[in-house]
Amino acid sequence: MRPLAWGFAIALIATVAIACGGGGATSAPASAAASPAAGSSAPAGSGLTVVAKDLVFDTVALTAKADTAFTINFDNKDSAPHNIAIKDATGAAKFKGEIFPGPAKKTYDIPALPAGAYTFWCEVHPNMTGTLTVQ
Ligand SMILES: [Cu+2]
Fold this sequence. Notes:
By secondary structure, the chain is an alpha+beta fold.
């Protein structure tokens, strides 16, 4: 009887300790984890925006979700023709958008890309470049 009573008492103390410590600890991270997950899905679906003006891109760093097709809303504000092309770290072309003069806008549909570091650039003006991080 004694060992059983001890065991019950220890189990009871342990349960109370877990309930108090665990309850407070788990509820906070759970709610914190839920909001970034809900927030990150919205930008992925809405697409990216890049503006070309005065022969430069307004954005030199883009981020996209790995293995997920996405769009780039390209706003060419110059009269000069521009486009956006994407190559991977080895220099292999992954996407080439239509070259068009501005002012005009086009939406490019970018295929799903594996995680990695990419470069985007304008084929007409090779000095117009930026980085695309797929993660
Ligand atoms: Cu250009």
